[in-house]
């Protein structure tokens, strides 16, 4: 009888322990954040800034893990296939979410169905850049010159089907500019040819062009942001220059696997919104040549809508450029 009572008591204790563990507030252990690119790029830098602030907000260690490959696809797939418990997150950007779906025929994840957006962290707007001694002073000048030229004017991007290439194709369609795409292996790879005078123009990230402008080695004709950027307020937007509604940017944000518990999503969403609103965070994004996300884009709904719209723009640009999935 004593043995039976002991067994029953032990079973009750185990059940109580299990119930307490099941009801433990999220998070109760370290959180892993996968950056689907090598260390050093915008996604990695922003991911590590978020890592520091998320640790403070969540009260648990946050570990960054770099998993590069396939334009961000390797890391994105790892998160999509992970257990949706809130302990594995993705630093998402154009590559895995807006570009891969239109250039890879057999993508092992769905950028919309497989992820639950938490919030955007920042954007780096794209911009149109010309040589410092070029006669062009506006988008209209570039368009007019491109139409009058006997041969298409060359313009460099980060590569075929890159975010800047797709944005360039959207710009060409919207403006009527006659420009010859010159692809490079990354935005920075185009800079030496540009500085040597072998490349008339760049369509690149603002963070790449800003140091060139400040050194007098380039001139930013227009930025593809909704408003002028604090880092270079004299540079007008595409919209100001008659390209209605035209925006294009490389973005970075935080996502979880679809099916992540509501409690975890609420905690992550609140933490993300608070971080993005901090003046220190916003200043760091400006110093990087970007801009912190707006309050609306730092929310799950706002970021989800942005991703869907950006993916639609990428599909349209790829179709216009006759880029087919491979």
Describe the structure.
The chain has 326 residues and is α/β, with parallel strands linked by helices. It folds into two domains: 30-122 and 250-320, Bordetella uptake gene, domain 1 (D-Maltodextrin-Binding Protein, domain 2, 3-Layer(aba) Sandwich); 125-223, 3-Layer(aba) Sandwich (D-Maltodextrin-Binding Protein, domain 2). Helix content is 43%, strand content 19%. The protein has helices spanning 2-22, 42-58, 73-80, 94-103, 139-148, 163-175, 191-195, 206-214, 262-277, 279-287, 300-320; strands at residues 31-35, 62-66, 88-93, 115-130, 153-157, 179-183, 201-205, 219-223, 249-257, 291-292. Strands 1, 2, 3, 4, 5, 6, 7, 8, 9 and 10 form a ten-stranded mixed sheet that branches. β1 (31-35), α2 and β2 (62-66) form a beta-alpha-beta unit. α4 packs parallel to α11 and α6 crosses α11 (300-320). It is globular and about 70 Å long. Residues 16-21 have low confidence and may be disordered.
Key structural traits:
D-Maltodextrin-Binding Protein, domain 2; globular; 10 strands; alpha/beta
